[in-house]
Amino acid sequence: MLNVSSNVQSPSKSPKSSRPTPVVDVEQAEAALVEHYPRLVRLAYLVLPPSLGRNRRVLTAHALTQRALPRSRRTGEAAVPGQRGGGGEGDGARALGDPAYAYVRLQVLCGSLDAGLPLRWNSWPRRAQLPPLLPHVRGLRLFPRSGGADELALDQRLSALSGAARAAYVLRGLEGLDDDGVCTVLAAAGCDDPEDALDEADGVEARYELLGSPEFDPCSLQARPTDLMRRRQHMKAAGIAAVAVLVCGALLGLPGDGWGPDGAAAPPYAQNPAGQAALDPGQLTTASAGAWKRSARTDFSVWPARGDLVGDKGLLRRALAVWARPGESVQVSATPGTAAGAPPGPARLLYAGEVDSARVVLLYDGLRIVRYAEPKEGTGGAALDFARVDGATGTEANAVVVDRADGNIRYLTAPWIKSAAVQDLLKPAAGATALHRSADGVTDPFAGPVQSGACTSWNALRLRESSGAVRMSTDLGELVPAHLTAGRPQAPREATPAEWSKSACSLATVRSHGVRSVNSWTYARQVLPEANGAADWVCTRADTWRGEGSRILAQFQTSDGPAGAVAAKAEDSPACGSRDPKVLAGVLWKSRAGAWYLLGAGSKNVTSVTASGGERAVGNVLAARTERSTKARLTGRLADGTKVTTLR
Fold first, then answer.
1. How many CB atoms lie within 10 A of CB 247?
2. Three-class SS state of 319
3. What is the rounded end-to-end Cα distance, in angstroms, of the chain?
């Protein structure tokens, strides 16, 4: 005999708690479950939390009901609670007086209440809290037939109740139990306070007749397909994953060098000739030391391989393997718009050597510069950086970052560079400081541009080429420095430090943005009112390697003031560039005497400037007396009447 009466605790207020507990035979419980299966499934469906969704509620209700029988063939006992009104008619009334039915109903109720409990991290979930394994319907969503507005309103009100309160409402309405009977069943199901559950259920209108609606019948169902496109994608992904697992398992079982030679790379996933060639250090291409002198091109393809570790096949193999399959411990970074995938074929070796506390390898695949770095001891903490350099020529291929440490930078310079120097753009009169380079072309470390706090200095790299030309570039947090130019967008020229002295700090806004070059253009000069001197209007345009994502700033710079103030800015605009060399911007400016003016300026092709307040000036500059709170808009006109709006 399986005595379950010890789990059935009647509250002290119940007058029926002293009745003897009937004995339940397992065969009787099975017969009761089969006979009253629709009623039990409906009860489970109503008590289950609506947050599960109608499809899962249906499947869970059937699963809980089918698991209600004890696992063994022994017998058990169950309490039969009192019925509301003391009796009834029909199958429902007969079921309420059946101890076998009471037993299976209690098991269904316990499972339904368990399913509504929250999952906790410090304990194993109960079986009812997990999605049911059976029954399982593949490719279909099942849910009861839709009812009317009354059924929907009742379902919404029940969803706001706790699981015990929903059970109390359903036991009253569907099972016809009185309050003592409800308390008996809830206590047996493990409810801590059945009376509170009854009180909470009293807050819902007693529309018990609606509980028998098809809306709550999990045995009369409608079927609809699941998301077909998502199912197809999941099946395809599962098939690919299965094939990948089989292939990886086969490869791991093959004899060979294992993972060790590849360092921090992930396990190999493919064996094909092109992929193997790209990972073979012996297939790396190199240029001869004087190739750049004979070539019509000056780009990364004519850089010779330099460094004291160019013959270290183990290091080169690890670099190529990590490039193709970076492991979880590898720190990977890429400039915006740069692919971080494996090389399409054998790459070109630019550098391999020890720099400070790391071993560094620089590679070039025709589109990207790739930097691999690992500690001198071991391969833990390896780093892999990608930078897009397609179409880089001349100045854009003059230098590559080989190491960063403690805010300092080291560059590997091109073979055609004769000398290097560092120039603080904020102090153009101070001149440049010579920068020593090793025989391999690696510079000594020097402080990079300011990254946070006050902008008190901005170091740029000045390189003198074998032709005598001096080029200036600056670090923006990427492998390849950005080329600095000045002048009209249609014909930019090499910049001087003085031309960037008041715009240098604005370069911080385009850091780590994939910038290829930045041009500074003084598009207008304006004499300020009240003999306050003059001001320059400067447009800086940062173009990217990927083409899109350009950033433009219009700045107002007084002759005797510090860094300029940003008057307007825009992104992904052709303004201030070779395609659309025009710009218009305005600011509110306060004179030394305290008067406020609206100042505006356009490029030289602007023939008139008009403010929204009606002020108009012939030419490309405007100065109008105004108030501090003024929010004016400017428009300009070209000689042919074309309208020009402010930069935005």
1. 14
2. helix
3. 84
20 DSSP 8-state letter: P
Examine the pLDDT at 262 and tell me if it is beyond 70.
no
- Preceding amide of 268 cis, omega within 30: no
Tally Cβ neighbours within 10 Å of residue 85: 9
Give pLDDT, residue 630.
82
Which of 460, 302, 332 minimizes the C-alpha distance to 394?
302
How large is the C-alpha radius of gyration of the chain? 39
Per-residue pLDDT tens for 505-543? 999 999 999 999 999 999 999 999 999 999 999 999 999
- What does the pLDDT read at residue 81? 61
Residues near 121 by Cβ (< 8 Å), separated by ≥ 6? none
Residues 6+ away with beta carbon under 8 Å from 136: 59
d(CA 280, CA 160): 65
Three-state secondary structure readout of 412-455: EECCCEEEEEEEECCCHHHCCEEECECCCCEECCEECCCCCCCC
The CA-atom distances, in angstroms, between 141 and each of 57, 225, 228, 349, 598 are 11, 6, 12, 57, 66
**Measured distance CA(281)–CA(632) in Å, rounded:** 64
Closest C-alpha among 3, 137, 145, 138 to residue 77: 3
Distance CA 531, CA 184 (A): 95
pLDDT surpassing 60 at residue 9? no
C-alpha closest to that of 201 among 235, 164, 231: 164
User: For residue 53, how far is the Cα from the chain centroid?
Assistant: 28
Both tokens of residue 29?
């419980």
Residues 455, 464 contacting (CB under 8 angstroms): no
Our separate counts of H helices and E strands in the chain read 13, 29
361: left (phi over 0), alpha (psi -120 to 50) or beta: beta
Q: Residue 351 and residue 443: Cα distance in Å, rounded?
A: 14
Residue 260: pLDDT over 60: no
pTM over 0.85: no
Give CA–CA dist 558/527, Å, rounded: 10
**What torsion do the CA atoms of 212, 218, 219, 221 make, to the nearest 10 degrees?**
110
Inter-axis angle of helices 99-115 and 26-35, nearest 10:
70
